[in-house]
Amino acid sequence: MLQAAQVAYDTQLLLAALSGTLPSNVAESSIDVPTLTGKLSSGMSSNSCLASAMRSKGVPYPFTNNKDGIVTIFLLDMEGTVAPMSYSRKVMFPQLIAHIEDFVESNYPNLAAESQYLKPACARSAELKKAVEEDMADNYTNAALTAKAKQLLSAHMREETEKMSVMPYVKQFQGDAWADWVARQDAKVKTRVFSDFVEFVKERGARGAQDVSRVFMYSTGSIKAQETLLSHTQAGNLLPFVSGLIDCSMVGSKLAPGSYSKIRSHISAVTGLPKDRLRVIFCTDNPSEASAADTSGAVESSILVIRPGNDWVNLDTFMAVAAPHVCSFAQLMGSVRTVDYKGLTDEVKDLLEMP
User: Gene3D superfamilies, per this entry (predicted)?
Assistant: First the structure.
């Protein structure tokens, strides 16, 4: 366990050194990149750790070794796993925040906003609740009252977004607002996902591969946000390769073990496959989510995904979680796949260098 955790930590260390994202308590001069690269490319590598962990769980690896009608379900987190975290934080969220007022202006009041955003928002803000009730009582005919309600709703959503709220109504609003912004850009916007994910989802999510494997997404981001991200990528529309999108409003928090039991039932229902024919592999960059999934007993294994620019994980946490790790989806496509660490960091360098 210690050895596998150390390999995970060293992988994170190498990616951070190559991308210039080392935490302040780690000196760049203390990292010998060529030596670390060589160490991770031979001997006790990420691939060998993954293979060993899968054997201990009774899960065949590579994941193509399906027998007895078992279908491998790859359940994937989005931010920091499929898409660079720096893309979400430095590109997507600024686009969203800049569009909040315009989106509210165009969508308040209407029944969808009232049920999906307005009621939950009013429950959390007495001032907004009072303004909306006064506007409603006047049948939205008083321009000053309507303007005040719009301003307070916009301010509330901006505040919740800036503090990274994961409340379902906030995530629903964010997804709809961002999708609206993207739709107004005349197809000029290209969202960003890791290139290894593109290759992976096209291979493992292809219609011809569905007797062996399928790909599902599970994100704190709403279904609309997931659809927008996956349908506008730099590699084109990837939605046809994804069997289903799941958000927290459907099954619950990613930190709750019970959510993963609901997901297994949901996947069984939408695929028509009995639960005992599913082999669920959950991939996430968040150690707490990996622990929750493993605790649930509803996934065969969680896998930590280490990416350049992700939040730092200390060695003790890697040891406590005891989940296998990868830093590229190429490692889920065969035990002989190698990782181009520099290429992985170069791919997101423009994002990491943004202020």
Answer: 1.10.720.60, HAD superfamily/HAD-like
